[in-house]
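chain below, 200 aa
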Amino acid sequence: MSDEKSRDGGRAYRMDKRAHDVAATRQDIVEAAVRLHGSVGPAATSVSAVAQEAGVTRLTVYRHFPDAEALFAACSAHWGSGQTYPDVPAWLSVRDPGERLRVALADLYRFYAEGEPMLTRIHRDHEALPPTIQARNAAAEVAQREALLAAFTTVRGAVLRHAMSFWTWRSLCLDGGLTQREAVDAMTTLVLTTAGLPPG
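prediction:
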């Protein structure tokens, strides 16, 4: 009886270890892909590159992630778990249009600054992203824009899109040297002025 229990225990241990090894390999692959997405960008991140970065074979990558969409979804979830995303419900709780705009832009620009290396490459390589990821990102941008459009009746969508754009933030802060606050002030003034509202 003791021998049978010993065999069962040994079998359970081997199964647990195998499951742990499989999970660890999967995590290594995801982390390797995240590093590549954040350094060379999604467009230049091949399965072979991911395999080399993770120290596994291409077959092992495909065993865990049968297509680019599955791998990218896992990478996105992993990277996103370490981010603080813009809080759209918090924007909506602000009644005054100008203040809501200021709160939203400060929140967006904070997110852009914190995630800049990855976001630069994600936005640059937009066309290389899987369609479902493109659609998800577009839906998030629409929800953010609508949260601000709901506070105005005269602002043009194009002006608001410009103020909320990652590339606008990058141009003002990284290329232009403005502080986050200066960039928020500049874009708030632009939007409010074009909406016919006092910028103060």
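The chain has two domains: 2-80, 88-194. Residues 88-194 form one domain.
thats it, cya
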